[in-house]
Write a structure and sequence with these properties.
It is a single chain. This protein is an alpha/beta fold. Helix content is 38%, strand content 18%.
Length: 380
């Protein structure tokens, strides 16, 4: 098949770009011809809370990535839509994650489908964002009505799409595949040496962009528990603040746990990700809301136990008591689970559980789900 993927890709950084590029690579591995269309302007700088939208990593050599789309310019949408329309691909996959993209993606799809051949699939990471605004009521229907079918990364997102989909379009889902492109597992002590950590210490990792819904404040409060302090358990915070860092830093100070917190508050480049995961004993995701999480799939790759909260799709992929813990999004529950993890020495047991469980999360399951929606469209 001739497939085009529209969404974030190099030179943009982050988990969405990584997902789209890895998906394109899997489709190519399966014999399809794949092109990617990404942005010249993804969104205006004032809408971006981080330091930069771009990566310093080299471009992926095996992918065809075209920077063509201006998310704010309807004249650009017409030009790019007509360019893709004339190519007559079998399928265009729109990697959708926020309502701001709905006018652009919806317009592109409508233009592309005028060729009478191409089918448009919405690959939905979040239909309703974790941090909502007025756009989430105004724009999604325009995007949803332009799609012929959908694929999601969790069952809960299918229910969100149903709120906007009047056509009852074909839908499929597959769990978020493992991010397996961040390097190899390395010895824990060696990873700690490279990060300047205590080789025999106890470390919990919080990884990724820091936003309110991810619950870092709950995790910091959990480290106010004297049982963790007495056990000298330390918290690695590795990621860029997407918002005001002061409330978090003030909380660390007020709890007097600065000596237990290792803060790397910059974007972590791809070639350093393995150091942080390989250094820790357990990965904590104390999210207040969630659909699914790429951090979980990085943890699977590096065979790390996980602590997640009982929100969204997280409990679906972290079996409680087998590869880690599922707890309520409360600081006390988080602290209790971490104390139990260390006091009862569950690291080796949970690591073995991760090795068994990770086999479910292959990229061919993701491509199969997209193709399932495509084939159902053809049968309608």
């Amino acid at each position: 098949m001739d497939i085009i993927i529209i969404g974030t890709a190099y030179p943009y950084r982050g988990g969405l770009a990584a997902f789209n590029e890895r998906l394109a690579g899997q489709f190519q591995h399966e014999g399809h011809n794949v092109e990617m269309y990404t942005f010249t302007l993804q969104y205006p700088g004032f809408l971006f809370p981080g330091k930069t939208q771009f990566t310093n990593d080299p471009a992926p050599e095996h992918l065809k990535i075209k920077r063509k789309i201006n998310s704010c310019n309807p004249l650009n949408w017409m030009a790019v839509g007509n360019e893709i329309r004339k190519k007559q691909p079998d399928m265009v996959v729109f990697a959708y994650w926020m309502s701001f993209m709905a006018p652009c993606f919806g317009s592109l799809a409508r233009i592309i489908k005028r060729n009478g051949k191409t089918r448009c699939i919405g690959l939905i990471h979040n239909m309703i964002p974790h941090e909502t605004n007025i756009l989430d009521k105004l724009f999604p229907s325009y995007f949803v009505s332009a799609m012929d079918g959908f694929t999601t990364l969790s069952e809960s997102v299918i229910a969100d799409i149903e709120k906007f989909d009047k056509k009852q379009s074909p839908k499929s889902w597959a769990p978020h595949p493992i991010y397996d492109h961040y390097g190899e597992l390395i010895d824990k002590r060696e990873a700690r040496r490279q990060l300047g950590l205590h080789e025999d210490g106890k470390y919990v990792l919080f990884f990724g962009f820091i936003r309110d819904y991810k619950g870092l404040d709950l995790l910091i409060d959990a480290f106010g528990d004297l049982r963790l302090q007495d056990n000298d358990v330390r918290l690695i915070i590795a990621g860029e603040f997407y918002g005001d860092s002061k409330p978090y830093l003030d909380r660390i100070s007020s709890l007097d746990i600065g000596n237990l917190v290792v803060l790397h508050n910059d974007y972590i480049p791809d070639n350093k990700v393995n150091l942080f995961f390989c250094s820790c004993d357990i990965v904590a995701q104390p999210y207040k809301t969630a659909t699914q999480s790429g951090v979980t799939q990085v943890a699977f790759h590096f065979e790390k136990p996980m602590l997640v909260t009982n929100v969204g799709g997280l409990p679906e992929i972290v079996p409680d008591g087998k590869i880690g813990y599922v707890v309520e999004p409360q600081a006390q529950d988080i602290a209790d689970a971490l104390v139990k993890f260390y006091d009862e020495n569950h690291e080796e047991e949970f690591t073995q559980g991760v090795r068994e469980e990770k086999m479910k999360y292959s990229w061919d399951r993701m491509t199969a789900a997209v193709l399932k929606s495509y084939n159902q469209i053809l049968k309608k």
